[in-house]
Amino acid sequence: MTMRSFFCLELDQAAKDHLADVVETLKQTDARVRWVRPELVHITMKFLGDIDPNQIMDYQSLAQTVAKARPSFRLKLDKLGVFPNFDKPRVVWAGTSNVPTPLTELHSSLDQALVEFGFRREKYYTPHATLGRVKESDRNLLSNLAKQIQTTSIRPITFKVDGITLMSSVLGSDGPSYTPAFHVPLK
Questions:
Q1: Is residue 181, in this structure, part of any structural domain at all?
Q2: 42 catalytic residue (yes or no)
Q3: 107 catalytic, yes or no?
Q4: C-alpha to C-alpha distance for 59 and 26, rounded to whole angstroms
Q5: Does some domain include residue 117?
Q6: How many domains, the chain?
Q7: Are 62 and 45 within 8 A, CB to CB?
Q8: Residue range 1-5: mean pLDDT, rounded
Q9: Percent of the chain with pLDDT over 90
Q10: From the candidates 18, 42, 107, 183, which is the catalytic residue?
């Protein structure tokens, strides 16, 4: 049996509440989007996919080694975007216009450490909190959604990043549910 999992940064409640308000504004379009429940919003550091639950302690040891060398820091979410682009939006996200060096270094260290578990290094990392997954195919509705995202201003929200979490993910008919496997503090 395997466990679907990812490393992430958890947002504080104020940041989750603020992003929930942003999503309410974005919901004004008629485009079909599966919006992420506010309590599940996070910043993904590395998606692992299916891992062996018997290796959780090994992953925790790796995360502790990475985390103890990195200081806590503040992260400001201040912009909205989409993947892959505004012509064909598939993922709606909130992110930062200025990625802090401690976040870049934390991601790079974690990414490099996971090579020993057989994971490939990521070529690009765009820190973001997924707000929704676009299910729409109608071009006019997609265009309206893109315009709504581009014209919605996000009041900057800053929160403290004080650790990394390995999250277990179970996919269900009403969306995913997440359970923390462990959380390790930054130094």
A1: no
A2: yes
A3: no
A4: 37
A5: yes
A6: 1
A7: no
A8: 93
A9: 93
A10: 42
pLDDT of residue 1: 87
- Over range 163-174, report the average pLDDT: 92
Looking at the domain assignment, is residue 177 inside a domain? no
Residue 64: per-residue pLDDT:
98
Give the separation between CA 123 and CA 111, rounded to whole angstroms: 10
**CA dist 174 → 55, 60, 76 (Å):** 29, 29, 30
Three-class DSSP category at 149: helix
In this predicted structure, the answer to whether residue 175 has a pLDDT above a threshold of 90 is no
pLDDT of 72 over the 90 cut:
yes
Q: What is the per-residue pLDDT for 174?
A: 81
- Of 19, 149, 11, 175, the closest CA to residue 87 belongs to 149
Q: Verify cis geometry, omega within 30 degrees of 0, for the bond prior to 100.
A: no
Query: What span, in angstroms and rounded, lies between the C-alpha atoms of 184 and 161?
Result: 11
Residue given tokens 């893109």 in the structure block: 146
Q: Does residue 26 carry a pLDDT above 90?
A: yes
Q: Nearest 5°: phi and psi at 159?
A: -140, 160
**Which listed residue (18, 107, 128, 183) is catalytic?**
128
At residue 148, φ and ψ (nearest 5 deg) are: -60, -45
